[in-house]
Write a structure and sequence with these properties.
Layout (H helix, E strand, L loop, with lengths): L12 H36 L11 E4 L5 E4 L1 H17 L5 H8 L18 H4 L3 E6 L2 E7 L5 H12 L10 E3 L3 E4 L10 H7 L16 E4 L12 E4 L12 E7 L1
Antiparallel strand pairs: 1-2, 3-4, 4-9, 5-6, 6-8, 7-8, 7-9
Helix pairs in contact: 1-2
């Protein structure tokens, strides 16, 4: 019994072998091209690291003037261009201007401007008043620097530097206190205001009684934790005596 060889239907044996060899050669060529691309990517990433981003596209087909399809290796072109530009960027030739700039002494930073009442004596702060212009009217606060000099100095600086402008009374307890000084409520919130809120003041308890009209510094339970928050008593608070730094008194409002 004779066994018939399998061929593509409708094609002679010789033409079938030719077609098969042609397809095998095409597959080998595509595999070789793909391997070249992978090697190119691997060598480029090994040379320049993982932080380089590539615009990778698949090979496109374009037609020439004769109408035949021509394969355009966009991937290989992009890699070559990137490799050339990166190598040039990594090894620039320093110019004379560049060397001069490198040897130029950096400009001195601008000195931090001191607040108006930094280092002010108690005598200078006595009689100083701060006026709070609120939606409910004016509140005039007279300083008591003898009772809490550091706290009074800090509050005067907050007022003089406009740090308290556009802030709100963020806590109101009926017949007890209204609390302000939260700089994060300001419409002009900035890094500088954040730095001011990070400054801690020393505890300055005194013999001043916490009664209606007294202005005192709010703080956490930890010692020396007062920053910019203050409260105004609208009622008596004897339980606060000796625990908080009373630094002012409302004389109007």
């Amino acid at each position: 019994m004779k066994f018939a060889r399998e061929t593509q239907p409708g094609l002679p044996l010789s033409q079938s072998r030719f077609t098969q060899r042609r397809q095998e050669a095409k597959a080998q060529r595509q595999e070789s091209e793909h391997a070249w691309r992978l090697c190119s990517f691997a060598s480029l990433r090994e040379q320049f690291g993982q932080n380089i981003r590539f615009c990778v596209r698949r090979s496109q087909r374009a037609k020439n003037t004769l109408g035949r399809a021509v394969r355009v290796p966009l991937v290989g072109f992009i890699i070559s261009t990137l490799a050339a530009s990166i190598s040039v960027a990594q090894n620039p030739t320093p110019s004379t201007d560049t060397l001069k700039k490198a040897n130029t002494r950096p400009a001195d930073p601008k000195p931090v401007q001191a607040d108006p009442f930094d280092g002010a004596s108690v005598e200078k702060m006595i009689g100083q008043c701060v006026t709070l212009d609120t939606e409910s009217g004016l509140i005039v606060i007279e300083m008591l620097p003898k009772a809490a000099p550091e706290t009074a100095r800090s509050f005067l600086n907050l007022a003089a530097s406009s740090a308290l402008d556009t802030t709100t009374f963020s806590r109101v307890v009926r017949d007890f206190v209204i609390q302000g000084g939260n700089l994060s409520t300001s419409e002009k919130w900035s890094v500088e205001l954040a730095k001011r809120m990070a400054r801690h003041l020393p505890d300055e308890p005194s013999a001043v009684r916490h009664e209606r009209g007294i202005v005192s510094m709010a703080r956490a339970e930890e010692p020396n934790s007062a920053t910019t928050h203050f409260f105004i008593l609208v009622g008596d608070g004897p339980h606060l005596d000796g625990k908080f730094a009373a630094f002012g008194r409302v004389v109007r409002g």
